[in-house]
Amino acid sequence: MYKLIDGKKISAQIKDECREKAARLNEQGIKITLAVIQVGNDPASSVYVSNKKKGCEYIGIQSLSYELPEDTSEEELLALVRKLNEDKNVNGILVQLPLPGHICEDKVIRTIDSHKDVDGFHPESVGALCIGQLGFVSCTPAGIIQLLRRSGIDIAGKECVVLGRSNIVGKPMALLLLRENATVTVAHSQTKNLKEVTRRADILIVAVGKSQMITKDYVKEGAVVIDVGIHRNAANQLSGDVNFEDVAPVCSAITPVPGGVGPMTIAMLMHNCVESASRS
């Protein structure tokens, strides 16, 4: 019988821990402020931004919201980011992605002060992760490490396969697993004999962006499976990159969609915001 890894429960634990830390900082006269910038009104982005605001309210973090029109120029956005960089009252800056096509995401990310980069996307943050120095870590991979740790799943010495090589999930995920002393393989669309590679995994982390692509044929008996994907079908039902019904019976533990990795992203963002205030 597989164990269901409960992201809602674990994220609630982390939020409560952040709330306590935020209260202690507040007693010391340290206020925590997160600035959230959204350009345009992409529906999915609007939902994410709303959830971030709710998270801030629960934990006791002040949230500054900048909702800019779709036709905002790149220079206008960069000017706002620079202004927030200089604002000593702002601990974290988050620019909601994706941005409209006329704005270069890389330029915007590089403009954010790395000390306020609570998303963990800045090259300095990624570089610090690579060489084991202090810096912010991308929220989704950091959340997955917490899911594993708090579910009593040992990582050290395990063979881990990360399916997907994005800058936001796949690459930092591999680095974090290495930090936890796992043996790590990163697989992707050009990997040959993919099923043979994934079936080696004691821990399989799937971030491919294809609905229910992973069936039991990809999974070793007794493996832990972490599903990062989220998709909505015509009936408004959510699913992941893993075919849950097919894969769950062969697993030792698995995350559901929804209620697995998703809630952890917001929780780790809140953690990074509190950490930013602590460091300052």
* Tally of strands: 11
Tell me the number of structural domains.
Answer: 2
Distance between the termini: 46 Å
List the secondary-structure elements in sequence, H or E: EHEHEHEHHHEHEHEEEEHEH
Radius of gyration: 19 Å
Please describe the structure with a list of short key phrases separated by commas or semicolons.
2 domains; Rossmann fold; three-stranded parallel β-sheet; six-stranded parallel β-sheet; 11 strands; globular; alpha/beta; 280 residues
Describe the fold and architecture.
The protein folds into two domains: 29-114, 3-Layer(aba) Sandwich (Rossmann fold), CATH 3.40.50.10860; 139-262, Rossmann fold (3-Layer(aba) Sandwich). 41% of the residues lie in helices and 16% in strands. The protein is built from ten helices and eleven strands. The chain has a six-stranded parallel beta sheet. Strand 5, helix 7 (170-179) and strand 6 form a beta-alpha-beta unit. The termini are far apart. The mean pLDDT is 96.
